[in-house]
Amino acid sequence: MQGGVIAYPTEAVFGLGCDPDNEHAIQVVLDLKQRSADKGLIIIASAVKQLEAYVDTIPDALWQRAIATWPGPVTWLMPARSSVSRLLTGKYKTIAVRVTAHPIAKKLCEEFGKPIVSTSANKTNQPPALTVEDVYDQFHEQVNCVVSGEVDTQSKPSVIRDLASNKVIRG
Q: pTM here?
């Protein structure tokens, strides 16, 4: 990704993504979305192992709670390592993580060798992009690459749950 921003299909919508360790690229994503840095962003991975560098130590029972829902459209709020960018965590001490089931998103993470940022491809208060055409309508030439493909049949964005309390934050 070399600091660029990509758009790609996920379980429910097209996502905007970048290297979660590149502060400049994360800021570009936030700027494109016109999103406050206080809210934080999701990262997706192709496997649990890819998330370990971003998630602080948690009891095995809690890891098992999350793993039981993956791969799939459940995002978990987990304690973030201190090294994780505040642009990813926002005003929180947690990071939102998911192991994706979408074959294209999964392949992107595998090829990149680590997680990628995953936030819906839309500007604040605009509908999320469901097609390549929708991405171009909202972002024109502002993303470095648009990966072709279909979103899965998931009807709404991923469920977000707090790992410690098991509460649904976004259903």
A: 0.94
Burial 37-65 (b: 16+ CB within 10 A, else e): beebbbbbbbeeebbeebbeeeeeebbeb
pLDDT digits (tens, 9 = 90+) for 127-138: 999 999 999 999
Residues 75 and 161 sit within 8 Å (Cβ to Cβ): yes
The pLDDT of residue 78: 98
Ordered by start, the domain boundaries in the chain are 6-170
Residue 75's closest CA among 42, 106, 105, 102?
42
- The CATH class of the 6-170 domain is alpha beta
Question: Residue with structure tokens 């030439």?
Answer: 141
Task: Give the three-class secondary structure for 31.
Answer: helix
